[in-house]
Write a structure and sequence with these properties.
With about 425 residues, the chain is of the alpha+beta class. The chain has 20 helices and 12 strands. A 5-stranded mixed beta sheet has the order 2-1-3-12-6. Strand 8 and strand 9 form a beta hairpin. It is found in: Periplasm. InterPro entries: Bact_solute-bd_prot1, SBP.
Length: about 425
């Protein structure tokens, strides 16, 4: 009897010790981070586990063209990771399908550490579905020599798109070069940046008087020769735009701060007369150029694990770690407020060039930077192609802007019904 009692006590103690020693596992997935950022993520994991010895953090990195299929399969199998790295469009699709869950309760009072624009990017129908992570932002490079030749003040911020188009026209008239290279091949983003909706209640609405009036402004500028015609209606006109700017054929270049290193390295004479300025905000205060990455919490994560998942997600995306990631990448921005105020972004030496000034300007605009993308369309390619075609017809004068947008809207709505 005595031996039986002792054996039972020992067994209970061993069971208790085993339960106490069992760690909580948190697996998080990132997208195309290996091998460049191995040291960064290994350090994040090491520090978190040191602060939380009862947690075992597992980092898995997947290529960007694989992560969606792997994620979908994992959720369907009931074996999802605790967190997964997505962009805004993918997060929206998963939110609509119910594959991820709202995180408002996990954010709690820490919601305030993220920028308003980043939170807005991942908030739909009043619920937030992702922890914001790294971001981007556009700035504007102006050629001081061209501006002065056109009788313009390069130090005066441009207030809005209409003013920018008028200045581009003045550059053409007085300096003899194109003033601006807008991304008219992605005119849907131009509309969104100006606070003009593309879809409402599942229907295309970009033929309103305000949309048409904006296209007429572009058409007027195009007729005056103010717009760089190289790839003007292509999906991506970055390469031709920076080539034109480096060649002294473009007065204003809208791009990311990092892209200005191309000007610095490839066209030193142009870089010497380049001044960085903020991009003009849209009518609702939106700043262009955002491309937010985030972390979502899949459906099927053990409810008991959620508090730990939230704690780790906020650690992964806090000010210190986002700042460290920005330093590691050398070109991304944080989505948290305090990191954007760090001297890494804001301290600009007196003799700094356009690249350093541009980085500070982009950081100061982060509160209002948005990801301007169409959400919730399964196959947007044919819709966007038709919109590009009609936009080109409208801006080049081959078609009245109202008729062009009416035709595009009719096509979109017919396709969206299918």
């Amino acid at each position: 009897m005595k031996h039986t009692l002792i054996a039972a006590m020992v067994g209970a103690l061993l069971a208790s010790g085993g339960a106490h020693a069992e760690k909580v596992k948190i697996e998080f997935w990132t997208m195309s981070m290996k091998p460049r950022f191995d040291a960064y993520f290994e350090d994040v994991v090491k520090r978190y586990e040191a602060q939380n010895p009862d947690v075992d953090v597992v980092w898995t990195d997947l290529p960007w063209d694989v992560i969606r299929s792997k994620f979908t399969a994992a959720v369907a199998a009931g074996q999802p990771p605790a967190l997964a790295n997505m962009n805004v469009q993918w997060a929206y699709d998963y939110a609509v399908s119910g594959a991820i869950q709202p995180i408002d309760a996990l954010l709690g009072k820490d919601r305030g550490m993220y920028t308003a624009g980043a939170l807005a990017d991942v908030t739909w129908k009043g619920k937030t579905y992702a922890f914001p992570w790294y971001n981007s932002a556009d700035i504007m490079a102006v050629n001081v020599t061209i501006f002065k030749k056109a009788g313009l003040d390069p130090n005066k911020p441009i207030r809005n798109l209409s003013e920018q188009l008028k200045m581009a026209t003045q550059i053409r008239q007085k300096a003899g070069v194109a003033g601006l290279a807008p991304r008219l091949g992605r005119v849907e983003s131009v509309f969104l940046g100006e606070g003009l909706p593309v879809l409402e209640n599942g229907k295309a609405v970009f033929n309103s008087p305000k949309h048409v009036a904006l296209l007429r402004e572009f058409a007027t500028a195009y007729k005056a020769g103010a717009l760089l015609k190289d790839n003007l209606f292509a999906e991506d006109n970055f390469q031709v735009s920076i080539a034109a700017y480096n060649g002294g054929r473009l007065g204003i270049l809208e791009t990311t701060p990092t892209a200005l290193t191309r000007v610095r390295d490839d066209a030193k004479d142009i870089y010497a007369v380049t001044l960085a300025q903020p991009v003009p905000p849209g009518a609702t205060g939106v700043v262009k150029g955002g491309w937010l990455m985030d972390f979502v919490v899949p459906k099927g994560v053990d409810a008991k694990l959620l508090p730990q998942v939230g704690t780790f997600a906020k650690f992964l995306t806090n000010d210190a770690n986002q700042l460290a990631f920005s330093k590691a990448t050398g070109g991304t921005y944080p989505s948290v407020k305090q990191a954007a105020l760090d001297p890494f972004f804001q301290d600009v030496p007196a003799n700094a060039g356009a690249v350093e000034n541009a980085r500070a300007i982009g950081a100061r605009n982060l509160e209002n930077v948005r990801t301007l993308a169409i959400l919730g369309i399964d196959d947007p390619a044919p819709l966007l192609r038709r919109l590009r075609e009609e936009t080109e017809a409208a801006v080049t004068g081959r078609k009245d802007p109202k008729a062009a947008m009416d035709a595009a809207v009719t096509f979109w709505n017919a396709q969206l019904k299918k």
